[in-house]
Write a structure and sequence with these properties.
It is a single chain. With about 350 residues, this protein is of the alpha/beta class. It folds into 2 domains: about 180 residues, Rossmann fold, CATH 3.40.50.720; about 150 residues, 2-Layer Sandwich (Dihydrodipicolinate Reductase, domain 2). The protein is about 40% helix and about 25% strand. A 9-stranded mixed sheet has the order 14-13-12-11-7-10-9-8-15. Strand 5, helix 5 and strand 6 form a beta-alpha-beta unit. Helix 5 packs antiparallel against helix 11 and helix 9 packs across helix 11. It is globular and about 60 Å long.
Length: about 350
């Protein structure tokens, strides 16, 4: 019968992902939702399926038909939209970040688990061959025990995004740290297989309503050991392609990743690997993560980037923002505990109707 999908968010990235989803064997696009009339009209013309102004109307009309829903909307809307889908018995693919607010992220993960629903987050570095090789090199023990990581990301962001929803805190939840910076935090935690323990952070809005530059000093936990990490993000960088790097230091060597090239230095010498650009472009990586979601919906695999992983990234991000607000180092575990307690008490959460 195939996999029947709906979509919330039909413009920009949402339309690109729908084009890719529609090209996957066995996938049928059933319905969509978007606040933009132009996006709804384009969706209906392209996919021959109805589109609604509100996601609730889409779920009411088609919830019984849908196997899964793709959510590509402003960050603070993810929680309510994903929760409504899960409660309707529909599997969820949600673009990064999974949610803003630790309480919301905890609620999504626990609800998906309780209802036995797929919850996958759209971090595409998990599908990049070189990042996968980096992670496998760490796991192999080739550089010994990991004890320190330095990573950075820079791009021309604020000049392009100024005036869009991404620079409106009520919709974005934050600035560049929650936007492209979320991919860097994902790469840090995933490649080291570590959990965030504590963070101290500073940000600079550079005259805007959201953070443009961020600097984080964090401790991570891996196999009972501590990793010291430094994280730098700038959204006022070069007009050229994004500039990204990560250096992982071990007791027996190091791994350098820089803009598509990985270098491993250990007792046996130096090894360099360059990414094949023909297989690591945006569309290729996006297709891989969407194929993985369809396979998870069909029961062929576990979610490639689970909600529990998305929760760790949200927790590190929110802890950084709390550190900026308080001027203190924040214990991420304690923040998660407060999020779980808040969920159990049942308060109104960000994105939930008053």
């Amino acid at each position: 019968m195939g996999t029947r999908l709906g979509a919330i968010g039909l413009g920009g990235l949402g339309s690109i992902e729908l084009e890719i989803l529609a090209d996957i064997d066995g996938v049928e696009i059933v319905a969509g939702a978007d606040v933009s009339a132009a996006s709804r009209e384009a969706f209906e013309s392209t996919h021959g399926a109805p589109a609604y102004a509100e996601h609730e109307a889409m779920l009411e009309a088609h919830g019984d038909e849908l196997d899964g829903v793709s959510i590509v909307t402003p960050h603070t809307l993810h929680y309510r939209q994903a929760m409504d889908c899960l409660r309707a018995g529909v599997d969820v693919f949600v673009e990064k970040p999974m949610a803003t607010g630790v309480e919301n992220a905890v609620d999504l993960v626990e609800t998906a688990s309780k209802l036995d629903r797929v919850l996958q987050v759209g971090y595409q570095r998990h599908f990049h061959p070189l990042f996968r090789e980096l992670k496998e090199t760490v796991e192999s023990g080739r550089i010994g025990d990991v004890h320190s990581v330095n990573c950075y990301l820079g791009q021309e962001w604020i000049s392009i995004q100024e005036g869009t929803w991404r620079t409106d805190p009520s919709l974005s939840g934050g600035g560049q740290l929650y936007d492209s910076g979320s991919h860097l935090l994902d790469a840090l935690l995933w490649t080291t297989d570590a959990r965030p323990a504590s963070v101290a952070a500073v940000t600079d809005n550079r005259g805007h309503d959201v953070d443009v530059n961020s600097a984080l000093a964090a401790t991570l936990e891996r196999d009972g050991r501590t990793i010291t990490a430094s994280i730098g993000v700038t959204g006022d960088g070069s007009a050229h392609d994004p500039h990204e790097g990560i250096v992982i230091w071990g007791t027996d060597g190091r791994i350098d990743y820089h803009d598509g090239e990985m270098t491993v230095v250990d007792a046996d010498g130096t090894t360099r690997v360059r990414a094949d650009e023909s297989t690591t472009g945006f569309r290729q990586l996006t297709r891989r993560k969407l194929v993985a979601f369809v396979q998870a919906v069909e029961g062929e695999r576990e979610p490639a980037v689970s909600g529990r992983f998305g929760l760790q990234v949200t927790a590190l991000t929110e802890a950084a923002y709390e550190s900026v607000a308080t001027g203190e180092t924040v214990n991420v575990g304690a923040l998660l505990d407060r999020g779980r307690e808040a969920r159990e008490e049942g308060p109104t959460l960000q994105g939930e109707a008053e």
